[in-house]
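so my prof wants the structure for this chain in the tokens format not the other one, which i didnt know existed until like an hour ago. anyway here's the sequence
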Amino acid sequence: MPANVKTRVLFHSRRLNIYLVRYPEGHKVGPHLDMISEGRLYKLNCVLVKPKAGGEFICDKNIFNLFGRVYLFRPDLHQHRVSKIERGNRWLLSFALISGP
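here's what i got, hopefully its the right format
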């Protein structure tokens, strides 16, 4: 059984959350939407360390994708997932911004 995902909350407020996440070998994230009660959710994900194999981020629609390392997208509107990490770990710095009412 693969190791658990390790998430460290670096900052938390009503509108902005910042996380450092380690996804271990063998882990994958199935297709999903991130639900929020109101407003618009934006995520800026920065892949700090790519796994040696697998662990690709796949999203129905990105606002931008910079070299497969930096993604800005609307996780509340567009389905997204991460393929199985075949070898190595995936380290992610994630900024979640809620805008609106």
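also thought this was worth mentioning. The mean pLDDT is 94.
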